[in-house]
Specification:
It comes from Roseovarius litoreus. By secondary structure, the protein is of the alpha/beta class. It is built from 17 helices and 14 strands.
């Protein structure tokens, strides 16, 4: 079965009312972003300044690294540090000295703040400045906060990239910057599509290696590949770069719209654009159609978790035939997701922030066919008979651009098929 994407709605959701709630919320710690960032930046090290709980979280999230020494660790704040009986700054610098003397491969070191380090007001920015002066030019030391007190887990990447922007060299050259950590194979696909269109002066933040020159300036235009990079967006604009607002490259429609936005900016004619994109677009539509057979006509409810909710709702409703009941997001950044809201037809309740008990009541009342939520809610909702999809899996799995469109749809169709198979088994 082939299902074509519907035309853009006459009225989207850009001006739709948004339910804003501030109460008890269910979030996953921003330190989790280290798990994909340390794989992307291959000569960087992420040193979390935190407690043993922080260390256990990272160990559990990353699994056991058997064949290679990981590029992240935790500088444990002991009771004497927390009680002010020891000079935590001196202790931290000694740990960094030991780390860098043992690991000559480290070219970038990120000091990552946590809940404990922020509670005791440990000045990691000052520590990063001192250590940069000590180890430059061999190692660049930066800092950002990964604290989970008020943040969701994808904000760790945003804070990390935003911390890099002020250190980027200035340039006047005309260039495109792709912003967001993508798996290498997906990034290569995007760069290949752009190169086929004749757009070759492209820089990527974050780069895979510290010695890859990433520059920024008034003639830089940037395209976000992730919808949770509001802080990085603001930091780049402060450096004079200009944002290219576009839907995000999820599914055939989003990828095409994202590429078209870039192509128009660089004067790519429609004939060349079609020659480059027609074949992968057809493959993406065919791949998504397999999942659409399961998802068409089903309802979906999004809890706020990753800030990917609005682009994913657009993809599921327009390419997979689903009905969105509620689309919750931790933060609704209109400068970033405005083009997505234009494509999302009126109907779903948009919500920003969370009062988790009230949102659970709305979800139970709606009884959606699929609920996208965090790990802490998934098992209880499954026990109540609701079908769930873990939001965190959407960040760890390659889902961007044409060749991954079918995989993205499959992440949503598989739990629905599983539930249907269990029902059939129960009645057999």
């Amino acid at each position: 079965m082939t299902r074509h994407t519907p035309p853009p709605p006459s009225t989207g959701c850009r001006n739709a009312p948004v339910l804003k709630q501030r109460g008890q919320h269910e979030v996953f710690c921003g330190l989790t972003g280290i798990i994909w960032l340390h794989r992307k930046m291959q000569d960087a090290f992420f040193l979390v300044v935190g407690s043993r709980t922080c260390a256990h979280l990272l160990q559990s999230a990353a699994g056991v690294m058997i064949f290679a020494e990981p590029r992240f660790g935790t500088a444990i704040l002991e009771e004497t540090d927390l009680a002010g009986l020891a000079d935590a700054q001196n202790e931290l610098e000694r740990e960094v000295d030991r780390l860098l003397s043992r690991r000559s491969d480290i070219r970038q070191l990120f000091l990552v703040g946590s809940c404990p380090s922020e509670v005791i007001k440990l000045d990691l920015a000052r520590a990063a400045e001192r250590l940069t002066m000590k180890y430059a030019p061999r190692v660049r030391v930066l800092n950002y906060s990964g604290s989970g007190i008020e943040t969701t887990f994808t904000e760790g990447e945003d804070a990390c990239l935003a911390s890099m922007v002020p250190t980027l060299p200035e340039t006047d050259k005309r260039q495109l910057m792709l912003v967001g950590a993508l798996p290498d194979v997906v990034e290569d696909q995007a760069l290949d599509l752009l190169a086929q269109m004749g757009i070759e002066d492209v820089t990527v933040l974050p780069a895979r290696h510290a010695d890859t020159e990433v520059t920024v300036g008034p003639n830089t235009v940037f395209a976000l590949t992730q919808p949770f990079l509001g802080g990085t967006h603001a930091a780049l604009e402060r450096r004079g770069a200009r944002h290219l607002p576009a839907p995000f490259p999820f599914g055939e429609e989003g990828t095409t719209a994202w590429l078209q936005t870039v192509a128009r900016e660089f004067g790519v004619d429609q004939a060349r654009f079609g020659a480059v994109t027609d074949a992968p677009r057809a493959r993406a539509r065919k791949a998504v159609a397999k999942a659409t057979e399961t998802l068409n006509g089903k309802s979906v409810f999004f809890f706020p978790d990753s800030q990917m909710e609005i682009p994913l709702a657009r993809f599921l409703t327009r390419e997979c035939g689903m009905e969105a009941i509620e689309v919750g997001t931790p933060f609704l950044h209109r400068a970033v997701v405005g083009p997505e809201l234009d494509l999302l037809a009126e109907g779903p309740q948009l919500s920003e922030g969370q009062d988790v008990d009230l949102q659970l009541e709305r979800c139970r009342a709606a009884q959606p066919d699929l609920t996208v939520c965090g790990l802490g809610l998934a098992n209880p909702l499954e026990a109540e008979g609701l079908t769930t999809k873990w939001a965190i899996e959407l960040v760890f799995t390659p889902v961007h651009f044409y060749e991954q469109a079918g995989d993205l749809a499959g992440l949503f169709s598989r739990p629905v098929r599983r539930r249907e198979a269990l029902k059939l088994g129960a009645t057999a």
